[in-house]
Amino acid sequence: MSPGHHLLQGTVRVFLAEALFPLTGIVTAAFLTRNLGAGDYGLLTLSATLISWIELAISGLFARATVKIVGDAKDWRPIGAAVLRLHVLVSIGAMAACLALAKPCAALLVNRNWRHISHFLRWTFLFFRWPNVIIAF
Questions:
Q1: Shared domain check, 100 and 48
Q2: CA 130, 121, 105: angle at the middle one, nearest 5?
Q3: 91-135 tens-digit pLDDT
Q4: How far apart are CA 70 and CA 80, in angstroms?
Q5: Which of 3, 91, 108, 111 gives 20 to 30 Å between its CA and that of 14?
């Protein structure tokens, strides 16, 4: 198999996988809304948004500097390994902070029905952040 054919085959597979995202999102939203109810699904969405912002901020913290440092280095492997280790440590620290602060943050909310958002925050962070920590490690 030629490199060009391999590249084309990989591109088509990635495109097909990306095309499934809207469908799986709609099915997942319908399933969760039905099982959780509109209010709890809204809390889950809010907590997922907050955790996604934290995750995006951590990734953005490393992105530009890593590209610059690795691009300037003659041997990029030790720098890449150091950046990955630091990324894992920062991610684990952010995860621990989110897990520890989920209940106090939920207590600050005025609406008493939102008190159980701490459970959503904890579970959302575990499910959204752990895969990235494992991939980075």
A1: yes
A2: 130
A3: 888 888 888 887 777 776 655 555 566 666 666 666 665 555 555
A4: 7
A5: 91
Statement to judge: residues 51 and 10 lie in one domain: no
Q: Output phi, psi for 111, to 5 deg.
A: -75, 125
Per-residue HEC secondary structure of the chain comes to CCHHHHHHHHHHHHHHHHHHHHHHHHHHHHHHHHHHCHHHHHHHHHHHHHHHHHHHHHHHHHHHHHHHHHHHCCCCHHHHHHHHHHHHHHHHHHHHHHHHHHHHHHHHCCCHHHCCHHHHHHHHHHHHHHHHHHHHC
- Please report, for residues 94, 128, 131, the alpha-carbon distance to residue 59 in angstroms, rounded to integers and kept in the order given: 12, 13, 14
pLDDT tens, position by position, 54-102: 888 888 888 888 888 888 888 988 988 898 889 888 888 888 888 888 7
* Count of beta carbons in the 10 Å neighbourhood of residue 91: 22
Predicted TM-score (pTM) of this structure: 0.64
Domain limits for position 4: 1-36
